Amino acid sequence: MNAEEISLEEVKVKPVVDHLNDLLANYHIHYQKLRGCHWNVKGPSFFTLHLKFEELYTAALLTIDELAERILSLGKPPYSTFDDYIKTSAIKEIQTIGLKDTLMVKAIIDDLAALIAKEREILDITAAAGDDGTNDMVNRFMQFNEKNTWMLRSFVNED
Fold first, then answer.
1. Which of 1-5, 49-53, 154-158 has the lowest mean pLDDT?
2. DSSP result, 127-150
3. Which of 9, 23, 67, 68 has a CA that sits 20 to 30 A from residue 84's CA?
4. Under a CB-based contact definition with an 8 Å cutoff, are residues 44 and 8 in contact?
C-alpha cells in the first residue's frame, strides 16, 4: 500500500512517517522506563505512584500500537526492534532500581516534555502534508501528555 490509496501524496508522507517512527522509538523507551518505575517505586507514595505509573505505561502501550498502525496505514513499515528504538530515541534509559520516588516522577516529566516537543513538531509536518488523520491522533497524544505533565509537576510541587 502507498499513501495515495488514502488520498495523501507519497512525497509528503515520507517526513510524516520518519517522524512517527522517531516518536514510536521514544515511546518504547518511555514505556519501559514507566514499567521500571512501576516495579521499583518504594516509600510513602508507593500506592499513589504505583497506580499512576501503571496508568501511564498502559496509555503508552496503546499509543505505541496506534503509532505503528498509523505508519502501516501510511504504507510504510514501523520500527520494530529495540536496536532501532535505542539508536533513534532522544529519551534515554535510566536505572530505576533504588531510584527515589520523586526522581522517578521528574524523569517521567522530562520524558513527557520530550514527547510533547516531538508531537508539536509532527503537528506542523502533518498539517503541511494535509494528513488530518495523523494530526488528530498525535494531537490527542499530546493533550494526554500535557495533562499528565501538570499532574506530575503538581505531585513534586513544581507547578
1. 1-5
2. HHHT-HHHHHHHHHHHHHHHHHHH
3. 9
4. no
Q: Counting Cβ atoms within 10 Å, is residue 62 exposed (0-12), middle (13-18) or buried (19+)?
A: exposed
Contact 37, 108 (CB under 8 A): yes
Cell numbers for 129: 502534508
For 122-139, the pLDDT digits (tens) are: 999 999 999 999 999 999
Can you tell me the mean pLDDT for 15-21? 97
- Cα angle vertex 144, ends 6, 133, to 5°? 10
**C-alpha cell read off for 35:** 514499567
Pair 67, 27: CB distance under 8 Å: yes
CA–CA gap between residue 151 and residue 79 (Å, rounded): 31
Instruction: Show the cell assigned to 64.
Output: 505505541
Q: How far apart are CA 140 and CA 116, in angstroms?
A: 11
pLDDT, tens digit (0-9, with 9 covering 90-100), for 72-96? 999 999 999 999 999 999 999 999 9
Q: Which residue has the cell 501511564?
A: 56
